[in-house]
Specification:
Layout (H helix, E strand, L loop, with lengths): L1 H9 L2 H20 L11 H5 L4 H4 L5 H6 L12 H14 L3 H23 L5 H13 L4 H5 L4 H23 L3 H14 L8 H13 L5 H26 L8 H6 L4 H9 L8 E2 L6 H16 L6 H15 L14 E2 L5 H11 L9 H25 L6 H9 L6 H18 L2 H20 L8 H13 L3 H13 L3 H23 L4
Helix pairs in contact: 2-7, 2-8, 6-7, 7-8, 7-10, 8-19, 10-11, 10-12, 11-13, 12-13, 12-17, 15-16, 17-18, 20-21, 21-22, 21-23, 22-23, 23-24, 23-25, 24-25
């Protein structure tokens, strides 16, 4: 009786929303709150913040955000909404990284809340609560919460979910004022990331799902299609002015990458330890098997479906927003970097599909077992996210983790060496100098084994030599000096050679001195 009274009390939509937002906020700050004192990883955040202070610190530059790309020399990365968010953080936080990380966390919590709001239209309370919490704590979303550039995908998810809510409202009420909301939210999404062009297909499809079988459904679908298409046209002209060419699409590579889809689906359904950067060729074979097992289970237990059209829509959303990432000339060879945050919106699509799976009547023991299983997935996901988030703390934690991955990757090793070299300078601990030398040496060996003529950068080579001298490793110091000389960095080579000779002389003097 008491449970029924409580459920009746919280059934008030406003109260239910407030309680859910509070729950998500508390869980988000408990699991990801450590990120508030993080620095930067020296990946995209270095270029977007540290090297772009002149751009993101002045409000008068907002016009430039819409008329140019972030990296003009590459003619790429048209992200006006991302830059506006960085500008707001720079102004409010006066350049403090705390402000950037706080915004990331708030955006992540808001995304999970909007997913809950949308699922209210199509899913029972327990299911929408579970899926919203799972989205919040999933290891898949760590980079969106903890890595500053990862916010681009949480901003995209917010825009997409707002467009979904507007579309649902138009489909159910027929209010023409919702057409403007669809247009604005679609344009918001497109100005965040290019793959939001998929909304041209997704929104009319969603309108069909909500209005199927009702009067005026065709008119509402056409209005939705018009609003999303109009937003795409406006965005296309804005983007074309800022970025005239888009490069070539390798269709052979695009289709050959489809074999990785089961792996990606598996990572969205089950807890996993993520990788800040991973290569397709190194992915585990367990996730495709897990995906197959889940698909068979769904088929056996979900023959009674509340709304099959939403299941199809959810999976279609995964493909529409996830597959464009396969368009890369290097994807087929597994040489592309796949950051987890790219599957932020596709994961929302998968959860939308999952919200519609209705199990048949089961006995009490099976229901208890299912609750334990789902609770276990939620708890394991939260625990993994909590344990893994320190990877994004700063440069050394990030690049050292990347460098430990199976493949890799001279640049990751070099940047890990740079990070430890910086720590050695700041904290003057020999252990960091030793780690720096190890990472640089691994990088040099990897490049040599691969017979790649371009070695690690001049500054890193010079740091390699200095770190080697700090631990009296003259052999590696000379390797760095010789490599600098071979690559015609003569001034750096000569400077390092002078320091080596001074170190040799000091060691010789020390050895020749009589013991007291």
């Amino acid at each position: 009786m008491l449970n029924k009274k409580i459920l009746a009390y919280i059934s008030n939509p406003k109260l239910e929303n407030a309680l859910m937002l509070a729950m998500l906020a508390i869980a988000g700050f408990i699991i990801f709150g450590r990120c508030l004192d993080f620095g930067i990883t020296y990946l995209d955040d270095y270029y977007l913040i540290s090297q772009s202070k002149a751009l993101i610190s002045e409000p008068e530059n907002i016009g430039k955000f819409f008329t140019s790309t972030i990296f003009p020399e590459q003619n790429s990365y048209y992200r006006p909404m991302l830059l506006i968010s960085l500008l707001a953080d720079f102004i409010t936080g006066k350049g403090s990284y705390f402000s950037f990380h706080l915004t990331n966390l708030i955006l992540h919590i808001l995304t999970a809340f909007l997913l809950f709001i949308f699922l209210k239209e199509i899913a029972p309370r327990k299911i929408r609560t579970f899926l919203s919490l799972l989205f919040l704590v999933s290891p898949l979303t760590i980079s969106g919460a903890a890595w500053i550039p990862g916010r681009n995908d949480s901003i995209l998810a917010i825009a997409v979910l707002l467009s979904f809510c507007s579309t649902a409202s138009l489909a159910q009420t027929g209010k023409k004022s919702r057409v403007m909301f669809i247009f604005l939210s679609s344009l918001f999404a497109l100005l965040t990331k290019e793959n939001a062009v998929s909304l041209i297909i997704a929104l009319p499809w969603l309108c069909f799902c909500f209005s199927e079988g009702t009067a005026n459904s065709k008119k509402r679908i056409l209005l939705t299609a018009f609003a999303s298409a109009a937003a795409a046209v406006v965005w296309f002209f804005m983007r074309s002015a800022a970025r005239p060419s888009s490069g070539n699409i390798d269709l052979e590579t695009f289709f050959s990458s489809f074999v990785y889809i089961p792996h990606l689906l598996g990572k969205m359904m089950f807890p996993f330890f993520p990788a800040p950067i991973y290569e397709l060729q190194d992915i585990s074979g367990y996730y495709p098997l897990a995906t197959l097992a889940a698909a068979i289970t769904i088929y056996l237990f979900a023959k009674e479906r509340k709304n099959a059209s939403f299941i199809v829509f959810g999976f279609a959303l995964f493909f529409l927003f996830g597959i464009p990432a396969f368009i890369s000339e290097k994807a087929a060879e597994g040489n592309i970097y796949w950051l987890e945050h790219r599957y932020y919106v596709p994961a929302a699509g998968l959860y939308i599909a999952a919200s519609q799976i209705i199990l048949p009547d089961l006995n009490r023991k099976i229901k208890i077992a299912i609750k334990i299983l789902f609770s276990g997935i939620l708890i394991m996901s939260a625990a993994i996210s909590y344990l893994y988030i320190p990877v994004f703390r700063e440069k050394s934690s990030f690049w050292d983790t990347v460098a430990k991955q199976p493949a890799y990757h001279a640049k990751a090793l070099t940047l890990a060496g740079d990070a430890y070299y910086d720590k050695w300078l700041i904290e003057n601990k020999i252990e960091y100098a030793e780690k720096a030398v190890d990472r640089y040496a691994e990088s040099e060996k990897l490049l040599s084994d691969m017979q790649i003529p371009e070695h690690i950068s001049k500054d890193s080579l010079y740091n390699y030599g200095l770190a080697s001298l700090a631990i009296s490793d003259l052999k590696n110091a000379r390797i760095a000096c010789e490599t600098l000389n071979r690559e015609n960095h003569l001034e750096a080579s000569q400077s390092l050679l002078t320091l080596i000779k001074q170190k040799e002389a000091a060691i010789k003097t020390e050895n020749e001195s009589p013991n007291p």
